[in-house]
Amino acid sequence: MRIDKLLANRGFGSRKEVKSLLKSGAVQINGVATKDSSKHVNVELDSVTVHGELIEYKEFIYLMLNKPQGFISATEDHLHDTVIDLLEMEDTIYKPFPVGRLDKDTEGLLLLTNDGQLAHQLLSPKKHVPKTYVAIIEGEVTQEDVEAFRNGVTLDDGYETMPAELKIISSGLRSEIEVIIEEGKFHQVKRMFESVGKRVIYLKRIKMGPLPLDESLELGEYRELTDNEVLQLKNYTKN
Ligand code: URA
Question: Model-level pTM?
Fold first, then answer.
């Protein structure tokens, strides 16, 4: 791999910035300063340092985004902004993609990664990874709705959902609820409420499997998962 690509991979800025970093003499390969951005390094064997600090190549990236409304969960779209537009260039380099989808008007926890295997595990219907949402519902959510969700409801296309755990936080002309589902059908939460004659007017995902949304992330902000969080996710989907 070219040294400039490796440095860009590790977040040392744009191509131009990487070039001037190299020019400054701050970069060494196996203890020898190099100013040549086209120089090749073996990421497994060569030791690369910047200002004396060891730089390691990273294959996978795992991001937690607090998705705002107005962005679609895709990597490309001709018409709309995608969640990838919210990422810094130093992260898009890894070609992350969203793990599943949140609707354009849904907010909250969205994982992005380039680890296809983990994404596949998290999305596999066999794994029953629970997803927790909070929502505001037009109308009064009742104990009958809680019961209906517990038994599974029938969606508009005849699909019978798995049992879902519905909790009423407050109920009135508008109700606030929390719901945990273990599936990920298209518009599932909205359609589950439609099946009991109600409409979701606000939806936010707050947890996926073992991973809660980091409350310190403002809408549109994201951060890398910690090694421990990645491990938790991997362990969660192991069996
Ligand atoms: N259910 C929905 O209806 N929409 C989402 O974005 C996620 C779950």
Answer: 0.83
